[in-house]
Amino acid sequence: MHVYDKDIQMSRKKRVGMGYLHARQQNKAKTKSIIFRMMRQALLSTISGWKPSVSSVKEARILLVGPVGAGKSSFFNSINSAFKGYVSSQANTGTAGTSLTTQFRPYYIKPSSSVTHVPFILCDTMGLEDGVNTGLDVDFATILKGHIQDKYQFNPLMPIQPDSPHFHKSPGLKDKIHCVVFVIDISRVKLLSDKMIEKFVVFRKKANQLSIPQLVLLTKVDEACPLVAEDLKNVYQSHYINKMMQEVSFQLGVSLSVVVPVKNYYQELEIDPQTDILLLNAVVQMLRAAEGYFDDFYNPEERSE
Ligand SMILES: Nc1nc2c(ncn2[C@@H]2O[C@H](COP(=O)(O)OP(=O)(O)OP(=O)(O)O)[C@@H](O)[C@H]2O)c(=O)[nH]1
Ligand SMILES: [Mg+2]
Fold first, then answer.
1. Among all ligands shown, which has an atom nearest to the Cα of 105?
2. Which atom number of ligand 1 is nearest to the Cα of residue 66?
3. 261 C-alpha to center of ligand 2: Å?
4. Is residue 302 part of a domain?
5. What's the CA gap between 275 and 265, in Å, rounded?
6. Domain total of the chain
7. What is the rounded distance in angstroms from the CA atom of residue 263 to the CA atom of residue 235?
8. Integer Cα distance of 283 and 281 in angstroms
9. Cα–chain-centroid distance for residue 272?
10. Which domain holds residue 219?
């Protein structure tokens, strides 16, 4: 055989080998993608099948609070996107020095063809600032008790007045907050000022007094760790993410089991099943926490406080 033919034969062998490997990798990626889609669908079904154990309440009201720019509004947009099946941006997001969100905004998520019932409302709020009272600071307890209605404009100079058109005089159990979520940018956990931590401690005390369960949502995990930016499935293996989860649990005095990492949609044009899985898992944790709140009302008649 001519040397030249041999070369061709070798390269053919190589090519076949490489082709085989390539096909195997493609199959693996396909299987992975199918599994992620199934997991995403299972989470959507779990959420839409969830019902509060108190019949007078149809949806869990989840309150998002946290520093300016932490990703509260983006979290609502991301969850809305996960339910819609495409990236949507109903709430305004971005950076503006002070809080971009200045109103109290309870957001409903519309059912779609794949999800017939969405049993929660995400309540977006104004961002907290170091030392400065942004308005939410004075209205926090009033929100928890269900007195504040959609589109209330926070006022740092004074709390909501009972004669305000946004003041609900006699809220029922369905109007109260059933779970508080502290939203924090994971890269800023180490940079939280004493004043901000003090605010969280005060908020936690108020929520505890009303027996409202709390969760900590750590956002922007993609920015915090290159391994996670490369592949979101590394989120629970990342040493840095783990360290920050422990740090925030210590700083705020919450158990590690209520600290949930997520990545929001912030620049993507299409949804991604892996991002959805983290986001929807956060919602499942929130509903489980809210369930703890409703357990207090199980069997006996609804209590008004
Ligand atoms: N890389 C990355 N950026 C994010 C993520 N979530 C939010 N962002 C960005 O962070 C910035 C602030 O996000 P917002 O959702 O507006 O934050 P917010 O907490 O509502 O801010 P205020 O309403 O001003 O208090 C935006 O520019 C977002 O694009 C995330 O998970 N990863
Ligand atoms: Mg906002």
1. 2
2. 19
3. 18
4. no
5. 8
6. 1
7. 10
8. 5
9. 16
10. 8-295
Give residue-wise pLDDT tens across range 235-268: 999 999 999 999 999 999 999 999 999 999 999 9
Residue nearest to atom 2 of ligand 1 (CA): 220
pLDDT tens digits along 156-213:
999 999 999 999 999 999 999 999 999 999 999 999 999 999 999 999 999 999 999 9
- Could you give the maximum distance between any two Cα atoms of the chain, in Å? 98
Ligand with an atom nearest the CA of residue 77: 1
Residue 305 has what pLDDT? 46
Is residue 2 in a domain? no
Question: What pTM does this model have?
Answer: 0.91
77 Cα nearest atom in ligand 1: 15
Q: How far is the CA of 189 from the centre of ligand 2 (A)?
A: 18
Residue 295 near residue 53 (C-beta atoms within 8 A): yes
Atom of ligand 1 nearest to the CA of 64: 19
Pairing of strands 152-153, 103-108: antiparallel
How far does residue 170's CA lie from ligand 2's centre (Å)? 28
Q: Which atom of ligand 1 is nearest to the CA of 92?
A: 16
Q: Establish if 182 belongs to a structural domain.
A: yes
Compute the distance between CA of residue 127 and CA of residue 125 in angstroms, rounded to an integer: 6
Ligand nearest to the CA of 70: 1
Residues in contact with 243: Cβ distance below 8 Å, sequence separation at least 6, in sequence order: none
Each residue's pLDDT tens digit, 200-242: 999 999 999 999 999 999 999 999 999 999 999 999 999 999 9
The total number of residues written for the chain in this structure: 305
Assigned domain for 232 exists: yes
| Residue nearest atom 16 of ligand 1, based on CA coordinates | 93
The single-letter code of the amino acid at 236 is Y
